[in-house]
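Readers of this paper often ask what the protein records in our data store actually look like. Below, we set out a record of this kind in full and without editing:
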Amino acid sequence: MLWGNGLGSRPLISSPFGWRVHPVTGVRKLHAGCDFTGYALVRSVAAGTVVAVGTPRGWEGGGIQVWVQHDGFLSRSMHLKSAPPVKLGDIIPEGRILGVMGMTGTATGVHHHLEIVDSGAQVDPVPFITNRLAAEAAGGNNRPAPTPQPEEPEMSMQTIRHPNGTIYFVDELGADHLGDYKTADIGLGEFLDANAEVFGGAENVSAREFDIAVAIATRRWERKKAEIVAAVVKALQP
């Protein structure tokens, strides 16, 4: 087991795993990985098989990526600078170069966003890798216990069901498609306003009406996000 820099020592962290306000959208949501900095070459944390290269559909925010299926867990390395030197199906060793750290996709700076999926759940890469390195150093072969995820603070929430069965949730943070972490946020105000304009509510509507409301809300939220990004860029300029 290694860190993303190919070493046994943990690199610098620029943004940890957990709930945060997204630096681009301004929306509070789970940062399902850890952002590392301070090295150029991104390497595989363990031996495995490459299962995705490039920008998977629905994961455009992560830019250029490499996903590796390891023994018992999956790793995702995102925001790589250019085309990775590996291809789909490659069987790679621990420490294999996956690419150069970059900021493709939705990012405000150069970093290595590393995600770990263990037993189907997104977990914090730091304790996950730390525990495995400790187990290896101790000569143990037992798999470390899964790392618990931070709990989201309680808040009011309601769900809206699409006529085709798809469920959306809306709360003070916005509206997301359940089960798809990378789906773009739909601002709550835009979403509810569009619902009222199109069909006056969320009950007994057709799939077409629901999709129209979501499309309207998404366009409005995209414009608002563009304004947020512009404000952030302006604030960062000397």
